[in-house]
Design brief:
The chain is an alpha/beta fold. 29% of the residues lie in helices and 26% in strands.
Length: 278
């Protein structure tokens, strides 16, 4: 059974969407309802739903910011047994947002949820889920398409929407202040070939410098310009211009070659579809 979570700060909107979903998708199980963004993230991590319906404007943490945090939650790449989820935004008519949504990167539902429009969204979601379900996880040649939250297009859209909803947000990082041996060095973000994290530190790699910072990948995704980087693993961001090619090892895993380095970066299953055409 497909499982979903609804997040909206208005109780009547949650009830109305639940009722409409029951009409157009009777088999769908609503496992939880959230009243704000932080609650939506916490309940998603707790229940691991297949779909999260997020009100785009909520107090404390917007639906857009909640979606960005949900995209960083542990998935089956971390032995969690959860492949991630579809994101559907709930929004009052907002020309900028609707134009972005119509590009097909993410689905949306206008308030109040109309049966006919909701049916279109449901059909698209069911089709995508069926397509992913037809692939065997162990079949490297049939790697699943990345979930919407795990695509560069989605990350870039969420970053643009976050700026639209919060114009006062800080500008994107231009420099990384990192520890190189026993000194602090200022590294231009555009010079970084990749960021890769372990439990405590994030390694910053340029063509000539290897440095360490304490900022995790999930925070870097919020702060750097994601038109410059692709996320290929929950713990790895790679500069698009630094990607030399993609190969597979004996276990069928995709490995990214980085220009000027012999080291290769593993692509997790969640992001495998990024390089499917290569």
């Amino acid at each position: 059974m497909t499982r979903a979570l609804i997040a909206d700060d208005e109780r009547l909107m949650r009830e109305q969407l639940r009722a409409r979903l029951k009409e157009v998708w009777p088999e769908l199980e609503i496992v939880a309802e959230a009243k704000n963004g932080p609650e939506a993230v916490a309940l998603t991590e707790q229940h691991h739903p297949d779909i999260v319906f997020l009100d785009i404007r909520m107090p404390g943490l917007t639906g857009v910011d909640a979606a960005r945090q949900i995209a960083q939650l542990p998935t089956f790449d971390d032995a969690q047994g959860w492949p991630g989820c579809e994101i559907v935004f709930i929004t009052a008519y907002d020309q900028y947002a609707v134009q972005a949504f119509e590009q097909g990167v993410v689905d949306y539902v206008l308030k109040p949820a109309e049966r006919e429009r909701l049916m279109v969204t449901v059909q698209r979601i069911r089709r995508r889920m069926a397509e992913r379900g037809n692939h065997k996880p162990e079949d490297a040649e049939s790697a699943d398409k990345p979930l919407p939250a795990h695509t560069p297009e989605m990350q870039q859209l969420l970053q643009r929407l976050a700026g639209q909803l919060n114009p006062q947000a800080n500008a994107k990082l231009q420099w990384i202040q990192a520890t190189v041996r026993h000194a602090i060095q200022m590294i231009p973000v555009e010079d970084v070939l990749f960021f890769i994290s372990d439990e405590k530190y994030t390694r910053v790699q340029t063509a000539t410098v290897e440095a360490l910072i304490r900022k995790p990948i999930k925070e870097l995704v919020e702060e750097i310009d994601m038109t410059l980087f692709w996320q290929i693993h929950r713990s790895t961001l790679v500069n698009i211009k630094a990607i030399a090619g993609v190969s597979r090892d004996e276990r069928g895993r995709q490995l990214v070659s980085v220009r000027g380095l012999t080291e290769k970066l593993e692509v997790s299953r969640s992001y495998a579809g990024l390089f499917k055409a290569m």
